[in-house]
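Amino Acid Chain and Its Fold in Token Form
===========================================
What this section holds: a protein sequence and its matching fold, both as plain text.
Structure line: whole-number tokens from a learned vocabulary of local backbone shapes, matched to residues.
Purpose: to set a sequence beside its fold so the mapping can be learned.
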Amino acid sequence: QVQLVESGGGLVQAGGSLRLSCAASGGTFSAYNMNWFRQAPGKERGFVAGITWNSHTYYADSVKGRFTISRDNAKNTVYLQMNSLKPEDTAVYYCNVAGRGYWGQGTQVTVSS
């Protein structure tokens, strides 16, 4: 069983930055591919960014060039650095162990215009 705890969300003005963290426990973090998803009110949860066990990264088109996913296996943590934030980035952000069905509780990101 893997537990995931997201943190780092908040309220920021458009153009600002936030860094989200997702701390994992209960599994072999270094072996997992990890993802970030987000869900805005009234919308389906959608993929944002992913990082493989050996640190290959991939992004949704909507965040390419603005968001950066990274991981620290010594801390069992995956990060999402979000720059140049836009109001349309407002959502609850979740981390996920790819293909394993483990999800965190989410962290709210609100971007004001």
The first strand starts at residue 3 and ends at 7. The radius of gyration is 13 Å. The mean pLDDT is 97. Residues 51 and 57 are 4 Å apart (CA to CA).
